Amino acid sequence: MAGSSGPTLYSARQVALIRESGKIVAKCLELIREIIAPGVTTRQLDAAVTELIVSHGARSPFKGYQFPKKTPFPGSLCASVNDVIVHGLPDDKLLKEGDLVSIDVGVWKDGYIADSAWTFPVGEPDPAAKKLLQAGEDALNAGLKAMRPNGKMGELSRAIQSLVEGRGYSVVREYVGHGVGHSLHEEPQVPNYVQLKDLIPLMGVTLRPGYVLAVEPMVNEFRADVVSHGNDWPVRTKDGGRSVHFEHTVAVLKDGIEIMTLP
């Protein structure tokens, strides 16, 4: 889903506008943290986030998003429960104690987009879920710590993969991070692994000041294999294991990086 005209270098003024969208994204995820509970539905979460986004004079870039062979996405957020990795549709199924729910939110304000995801436990997670959640959050942080102006993409990718696989989990291959700003998905792609030969050109991509990237490891409890069905949006783990998803929008600056979707 990357763009075709090459990565965009955003000016300081444009980064400031993306930052404002990022602040709203962070508020959306904090709202989810406050209201998610057993007996709540993901459609209710979607309605709450939609109201918050609109109250800030913004809109969701997810709602109505077009992807080949799929119907336009119906929600302001993706709500992916347990074995759903990404693109879960908000629905009326009641969440249960111990569910893991990955919430992916984007905000489009004044022509600029920020994007973030976090996986929330419903109630008290079981011990295995706690370890998986920690691995996912730590993988994101490892990738962010490996980022530096004029560094290489491969440093970020290797840091994420090493942490995840070192904990005994697997990194999803089919879905990766991406540039973000004017559009929801821009170049360059941001892989969370380094093993395949066809990624070698991406590994050498220089993280130039002005890049704005969505860094988003998706970590599976067991195997990395995924499955989706026809025109359906949700992507699931093939073996039924749980998956977690953590994402921040990050600007590469001259003297470091800025995480633009922190609460």
Give a written overview of the molecule.
The protein has 263 residues and is of the alpha+beta class. It is 29% helix and 24% strand. It has helices at 12-35, 42-55, 127-146, 153-166, 200-203; strands at 77-81, 84-86, 100-109, 112-121, 170-171, 177-179, 186-190, 212-215, 218-220, 226-227, 235-237, 243-245, 248-253, 256-259. Helix 1 packs antiparallel against helix 2 (42-55) and helix 3 runs antiparallel to helix 4. It starts with 11 loop residues before the first helix and ends with a strand.
Strand composition percent:
15-25%
**Overall tally of domains:** 1
Runs in which pLDDT lies below 50 for 5 or more consecutive residues are none
Mean pLDDT: 95
* Shape annotation: globular
Helix and strand composition category: alpha+beta
Q: Give Rg in angstroms.
A: 17 Å
In which order are the strands of the major sheet placed? 7-6-8-13-14
CATH architecture: Alpha-Beta Complex
Major sheet, described briefly?
5 strands, antiparallel
Q: Name the CATH class.
A: Alpha Beta
Contiguous helical run count: 5
- The helicity comes to 25-40%
CATH topology: Creatine Amidinohydrolase
CATH H level: which superfamily?
Answer: Creatinase/methionine aminopeptidase superfamily
Series of H and E elements: HHEEEEHHEEEHEEEEEEE
Distance between the termini: 27 Å
User: Count the strands?
Assistant: 14
